């Protein structure tokens, strides 16, 4: 049975020992009338929640925050906030951040605990990943997108499965920038510090190639000497079809060429000076100034000047030869006094000239001429013992040896010719008894001895 508060409040004379009962009910009715009619819609569970409010005071501002919420805040809710300022964030799932992560403090060392920790060392300006389960720093790997670094990337090894692209690699000292088996292209200029070395793995080689049609391919270097640029290069010269090693700048150009026929060309000041052909022959365009020359073959040239030392021929049946063809032996071999480049001339010293058979008007001659040194120059023929056997000066022929024909009763002293004979005018003999000298001559068919002793 329901109890009607309004009826009780209007009933007269309801009382007990504590007072007028109907008055009390009237007060209760007044209090209840002051309550919102919506309270009758509260469930038992909602009433229980309201009863718990008394345990913790909730301010009006806090009720305003609650009333201002525009999204669910359950553990399974997906929420969206502006700025979140909090302590530690613990997530059992994936954390996705669509904007920047900013730290306002610098933790210079990892903390103890479990799990992986990432922190920013403000002193070093470095982000670290630290495994607190098995203490130690870990690698940070990024995948699935591009990473752009506006400043300087300071790191240890960089391992990349794709192309590594940057406007510069300043400060790279010992890094494997690219996969050695990959084909890469460098379109700009690389600048290296001093003492840079390129080394091929043992058993392989370094390749420098160009795919461009009809183009040069060089390794080029540039240095400074007393403020003057010096450039060197090694490579292929397309215009000359030569492999070239050379330098330019400051000093006159100097190159070594290897041409398509296998010749090696030396070009100081850009002018050909030496050619080494595939048959091991050397051709000098200028003067060869050197120390000793040791040759097992021929030495050929338009001129050979020895300013000091000797020309030694120590091979059997070899010599200094004029190379001509039979019937046109128009060359000559002349050994002259040092510093003289003309023909035989007694005013410059002694010499020997050997002329080819067809050499102008004196073909076939062998001329031996003494120099004129104060009138005493002579041609001397010495024996194997080194003593003079025949001496020819400018007025006479002298001998220290016996003269006899090679065959007995065969030869004459003079020209034995009935038409144009040539004879000696006389002969000077010495009397072995008295030591006097006599001139023996034929006068009017009579042999006459004239005493030359005064």
Give a topology summary.
Layout lengths: L4 H6 L4 E2 L2 E2 H14 L9 H9 L7 H9 L47 E6 L4 E6 L4 E3 L78 E9 L2 E10 L4 E7 L5 E5 L5 E5 L5 E3 L5 E3 L47 E4 L15 E5 L10 E4 L9 E4 L5 E5 L4 E3 L27 E4 L6 E7 L2 E6 L3
Antiparallel strand pairs: 1-2, 3-4, 4-5, 6-7, 7-8, 8-9, 9-10, 10-11, 11-12, 13-14, 14-15, 16-17, 17-18, 19-20, 20-21
Globular, elongated, flat, extended or rod-shaped: what is the shape?
rod-shaped
Number of helices: 4
pLDDT average, as an integer?
74
- Largest sheet features: 7 strands, antiparallel
Uncertain spans, ≥5 residues at pLDDT below 50? 172-176
Structural class: mainly beta
Strand content: 15-25%
Helix content: under 10%
Strand order of the largest sheet: 6-7-8-9-10-11-12
The helix-strand sequence is: HEEHHHEEEEEEEEEEEEEEEEEEE
Distance between the termini: 204 Å
- How many beta-strand runs? 21
What is the gyration radius calculated from CA atoms?
A: 61 Å
């Amino acid at each position: 049975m329901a109890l009607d508060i309004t009826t009780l409040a209007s009933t007269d004379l309801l009382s007990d020992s504590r007072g007028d009962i109907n008055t009390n009910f009237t007060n209760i009715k007044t209090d209840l009338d002051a309550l919102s009619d919506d309270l009758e819609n509260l469930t038992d569970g909602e009433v229980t929640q309201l009863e718990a409010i008394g345990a913790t005071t909730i301010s009006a501002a806090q009720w305003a925050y609650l009333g201002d919420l525009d999204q669910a805040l359950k553990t399974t809710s997906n929420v969206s906030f502006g700025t979140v300022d909090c302590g530690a964030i613990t997530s059992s799932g994936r954390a996705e951040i669509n904007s920047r992560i900013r730290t306002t403090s610098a933790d210079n060392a990892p903390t103890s605990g479990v799990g992986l920790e990432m922190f920013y060392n403000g002193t070093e300006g470095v982000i670290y990943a630290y495994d607190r389960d098995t203490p130690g720093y870990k690698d940070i790997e990024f995948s699935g997108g591009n990473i752009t670094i506006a400043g300087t990337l300071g790191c240890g090894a960089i391992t990349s499965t794709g192309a590594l692209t940057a406007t510069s690699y300043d400060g790279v000292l010992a890094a494997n920038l690219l996969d050695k088996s990959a084909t890469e292209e460098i379109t700009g200029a690389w600048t290296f510090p001093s003492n840079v070395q390129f080394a091929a793995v043992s058993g392989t080689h370094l390749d420098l190639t160009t795919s461009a049609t009809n183009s040069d391919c060089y390794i080029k270097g540039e240095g400074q000497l007393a403020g003057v640029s010096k450039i060197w290069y090694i490579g292929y010269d397309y215009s000359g079809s030569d492999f070239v090693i050379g330098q330019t700048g400051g000093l006159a150009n100097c190159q070594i060429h290897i041409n398509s026929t296998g010749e090696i060309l030396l070009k100081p000041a850009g002018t050909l000076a030496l050619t080494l052909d595939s048959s091991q022959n050397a051709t000098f365009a200028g003067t060869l100034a050197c120390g000793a020359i040791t040759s097992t073959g021929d030495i050929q040239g338009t001129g050979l000047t020895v300013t000091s030392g000797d020309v030694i021929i120590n091979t059997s049946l070899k010599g200094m030869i004029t190379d001509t063809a039979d019937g046109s032996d128009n060359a000559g071999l002349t050994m002259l006094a040092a510093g003289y480049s003309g023909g035989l001339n007694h005013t410059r010293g002694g010499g020997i000239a050997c002329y080819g058979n067809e050499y102008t008007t004196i073909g076939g001659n062998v001329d031996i001429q003494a120099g004129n040194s104060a009138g005493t120059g002579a041609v001397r023929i010495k024996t194997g013992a080194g003593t003079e056997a025949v001496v020819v000066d400018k007025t006479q022929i002298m001998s220290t040896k016996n003269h006899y024909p090679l065959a007995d009763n065969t030869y004459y002293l003079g020209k034995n010719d009935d038409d144009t004979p040539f004879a000696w005018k006389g002969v000077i003999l010495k009397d072995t008894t008295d030591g006097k000298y006599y001139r023996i001559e034929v006068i009017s068919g009579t042999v006459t001895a004239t005493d030359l002793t005064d």
